Amino acid sequence: MDGVELELAAQHAEIVKPRRFxxxxxxxxxxxxxxxxxxxxxxEWRERARQEYASLALxxxxxxxxxxxxxxxxxxxxxxxxxxxxxxxxxxxxxxxELLVPGVPVDVDEEALHLPVSAGSLRAHVRGxxxxxxxxxxxxxxxxxxxxxxxxxxxxxRDIVRSIVDDETFHxxxxxxxxxxxxxxxxxxxxxxxxxxxxxxxxDLFLHYRTICGASRPLAWARERDEDESTSNKTAPNFGxxxxxxxxRCFWDGMNDDVVPALVACGFPEARAxxxxxxxxxxxx
Length: 285
What we know:
Elements: H1 7-15, H2 35-68, H3 73-100, H4 122-151, H5 155-182, H6 189-200, H7 202-212, H8 219-222, H9 244-265, H10 270-280
Helix pairs in contact: 2-3, 2-4, 3-5, 4-5, 4-9, 7-10, 9-10
């Protein structure tokens, strides 16, 4: 089949094409950057590829589960768009990492991609995934990538980040809309008990995101120095990444400004107390 383009390859190329603009891959001059800077950036982009691939698996599963619940076609359309976006993001991150440091594979734990139904009902499970992965995860991711867009100085990295941030912002908005719809049915006993179970898990969920967003240390540490994430006045190039404090500040600001108020508005007043406790918890060990 040498010289014959498979239809699979052609369709994949269409899927991973950015929605609003072309990315100038050929314009990247690797030799213009130091090996240490390239290696550091490649590690972050490989990790991003791994995370995006995990999101692809999760969204694929929850899309089929929502379909089993009888979700309307507009839900299916939104989730299909999200799945397509995650294919694109995985490709972008992995391709950029390979361009930065060739020959290093993205490490994916295939067993971790199989996620069992973890709640008492399929509806409760889907609602929990929407809260965790879409409302919290994608909202925080959107904020992080927006800050990365401000910081990056490498043109190719800027284009890649700009493509991803548009989608992540959309995913967060869809998550909050889905949660609001899933919370309908006030007074229904099953819904009330499922809501209470989800509310009781918010503390652990907040701690989980503190850990994976690099915010294990307290807010005071994140604000200890007023670091300027922009490298426009620095000698080192920025490949679309943040400092550890930069990631932590995005988490704290995103939770305080976006996530917790929106959870309260969606019918989870317990989010305030859970966030106070999770913020004060010592998880540095």
